[in-house]
Amino acid sequence: MADNAANLGEGLRIGEVSFTPIQSSPYIAPYRMKFIQNDKKRVWDCVKAHDSLSILLFNTSTKELVIVKQFRPAVYARKLFDKLEKEGTMDLSKLSELTEIKQDSLCNSREGITYEVCAGLVDKNKPLEEIAQSEAWEECGYRVPLENIKKFNSYLSSLGLSATKHTMFYAEVTNEMRVGTGGGLTTEQEEIEVLHLSLGAARHLLWDETRFKSCGLCLAITWFLTTQDMKLYD
Ligand SMILES: O=c1ccn([C@@H]2O[C@H](COP(=O)(O)OP(=O)(O)O[C@H]3O[C@H](CO)[C@@H](O)[C@H](O)[C@H]3O)[C@@H](O)[C@H]2O)c(=O)[nH]1
Ligand SMILES: [Mg+2]
């Protein structure tokens, strides 16, 4: 891979971290479901969240998979919580009291960096293929014709928490279709790095525990290597 574990997060500065309870959010709504299961009363705490989709791009000009790397607050926060719990400076019930965390108690920003398939929320009333097409442009800089975009799987994720539906798309692209830099929407403060992975690097990334990756990325790479790779080289 072009990047290496040692320079992960270089140039990324995370500071002034604080936590507050959520009053209302355009992204999630926590709720409690009460029900009777086989005559027993049960209660389960859940989160209503948007469905999502991802689009795995394969550049046939360079024979590389195109994926994204970005800072994920929840990934960083879980590392920070682990650290504060170990230091005895926090217990989970007091999360909303963590209004300010000293800069020297913070984790290295690399602890929040993830590798993922180009992905987005389904928060617009548009065909999924069109949302996938927009994400490929905004995040990776590829103008992908709609007819290249093929659905290959879907699943429910975070089953114990939200059961949001994730739909997976695949598209073959060429160098000529890369007419932008990607990087995400500045209006949404996205800062996304585009990575072009050789198939060897993709195979290696699957089992590299020094990098945080989504399950969706592992599934998409595995799908590609077991179903598409052979077709392309036959
Ligand atoms: O609390 C939030 C949540 C979202 N955003 C904004 O909303 C954008 C959402 O970006 P989008 O690319 O549409 O979604 P992703 O964050 O990439 O999430 C996708 O990728 C994740 C990892 O695969 C999946 O978990 C998600 O379900 C899937 O939608 C973010 O960049 C932010 O700009 C915020 O500012 N605050
Ligand atoms: Mg995204």
In the CATH scheme, what's the topology name?
A: Nucleoside Triphosphate Pyrophosphohydrolase
Number of strands: 10
Question: Strand share of the residues?
Answer: 25-35%
Q: What's the Cα radius of gyration?
A: 20 Å
Bound molecules: uridine-5'-diphosphate-glucose, magnesium ion
Low-pLDDT stretches are: none
Give a nutshell description of this structure.
By secondary structure, the protein is an alpha+beta fold.
Q: Which features characterize this protein?
A:
234 residues; binds magnesium ion; globular; alpha+beta; two-stranded antiparallel sheet; Nucleoside Triphosphate Pyrophosphohydrolase; binds uridine-5'-diphosphate-glucose; 30% strand
Written account of the structure:
This protein has 234 residues and is α+β, with helices and mostly antiparallel strands. It has a single domain (27-233), classed as Nucleoside Triphosphate Pyrophosphohydrolase. The chain is built from 4 helices and 10 strands, in the order E-E-E-E-H-E-E-H-E-E-E-H-E-H. Strands 3, 4, 5, 6, 7, 8, 9 and 10 form an 8-stranded mixed sheet that branches. A two-stranded antiparallel sheet has the order 1-2. Helix 3 packs antiparallel against helix 4. It binds uridine-5'-diphosphate-glucose and magnesium ion. Uridine-5'-diphosphate-glucose (UPG) binds next to strand 3 and strand 6.
Summarize the SSE layout with pairings.
Elements: E1 28-37, E2 40-49, E3 52-59, E4 64-71, H1 73-86, E5 113-116, E6 118-121, H2 128-140, E7 150-157, E8 164-173, E9 192-198, H3 199-206, E10 212-213, H4 215-233
Parallel strand pairs: 3-8, 5-10
Antiparallel strand pairs: 1-2, 3-4, 3-6, 4-5, 4-9, 7-8
The chain binds uridine-5'-diphosphate-glucose and magnesium ion (MG).
Uridine-5'-diphosphate-glucose is lined by residues 27, 52, 54, 116, 119-121, 188-190, 214, 216.
